[in-house]
Amino acid sequence: YEQMGRKQGRLLKRSGFTLPPPEKKMLRFAKQCEEIVSQYMPELLDEIHGVAEGAEIDYDAIMTLTMTAPFDPGKVPSCAVVAVMPERTADGRMIVGRNFDMFEDVSKEGATTYRTYPEGHYASVGNCDIWVGRWDGLNEAGLFTGTTALFLPEPEPALPGPVGWFTGRHILDHYATVNEAIKFIKSLPRTGSGARLIADSSGKAVVLEASVEGVELRYPEDGLLISTNHAVCPAFAGKDHYNEYFADSQARYNRLRELLGGAKMVDIKMVKKAMSDHEGGVCSHKVDSSGRKDSTIWSVVAHPSERRIDIAEGHPCRAKYQTVCF
Reduced to 3 states, what is the DSSP secondary structure of residue 318? Predict the structure, then answer.
């Protein structure tokens, strides 16, 4: 892990990357997070040390940013992830799709597709906009994961713990099945809210919706499993804090169900078309009141059982999906 970090750090140094010293308050919080991460995924700390060494940047500065990456949760845009179960696909193999949406000024420059080869663990292809984490990806065992934001009540002050992009990275590196990943996620301290779809090569898929109150599991209905940015599990449904996102999230959820749920036999072209859809806003081209662009930064369509992942860099309505090999 330290070797992987040093390699990435050298690339960052070559690009002229620098970081200012962290604020004392944020550093104190990051140190609390670091202590918890050391208990559950210590190898990622080795990688952060490697990044700091390779980039010749202060460890505390890059550790703080990687552990916290603070932004206002009330202004974070949306994502979508979907799994079409084998009984609904033309070839009898599960298909997963995922769009990562974010403000371009936050995410576009750092968005990267990683091929990762951790010694003694699973190789993977995954995407993130920060160095050590992964927001989504597929590993060589055929395990896929992708996240979406939920806006459930958050604790004040924030609770320390591992961020979602760390959890995604650990899952891709270590697990081959949905059940293994569920067990790990349930073992983590609950620090906030979010949803994660996990699918494996056997054709099993689940969405985990989490809040500080606990974790709820949601399974496919009529051969389809969708997660956008509102809670669907009965325990959390209707508790979303930021109601301005609910209508948008519901529209994308309903549109994906309409496009993929109404077809008898879904193929990979249909999933790519659904992820490129504008009518329901699945492919995001939004501009907020201040002029910030909320865009689909990348899109993924994958066959977990075939260990195949196709990635579009940018809006899938414009960018061509390319198969990325391990």
Answer: coil
Neighbour count for residue 207 (Cβ, 10 Å): 24
The pLDDT tens digits for 190-203 are 998 999 999 999 99
DSSP 172-221: HHH-SSHHHHHHHHHHSPP-S-EEEEEE-TTS-EEEEEEETTEEEEE--B
Where would I find the H helices in the chain?
2-14, 24-40, 43-55, 59-68, 104-107, 164-174, 178-187, 246-261, 268-275
Residue 203 gets the label, from left (phi > 0), alpha (psi -120 to 50) or beta, of left
> Residue 7 — pLDDT band, cuts 50, 70, 90?
very high
Helix and strand numbers (H, E) in the chain are: 9, 14
- Answer whether residue 245 shows pLDDT above 90: no
**DSSP secondary-structure letter at 125?**
E
Q: Is 242 helix (H, G, I), strand (E, B) or coil?
A: coil
DSSP helix/strand/coil, 139: strand
Among 147, 243, 152, smallest CA distance to 192 is for 152
Instruction: Give the single-character DSSP code of 158.
Output: P
Does position 59 have pLDDT exceeding 70, yes or no?
yes
Task: Provide the β-strand partners of residue 144.
Answer: 138, 199
CB count within 10 Å of CB 237 equals 12
Amino acid at 11: L
Structure tokens at 225: 């499993």
User: Could you give the CA distance from residue 285 to residue 298 in angstroms, rounded to a whole number?
Assistant: 12
Tell me the C-alpha distance between 233 and 219, whole Å.
Answer: 10
Q: Rounded to whole angstroms, how far apart are CA atoms 153 and 236?
A: 10
With 0.85 as the threshold, say if the pTM is over it: yes
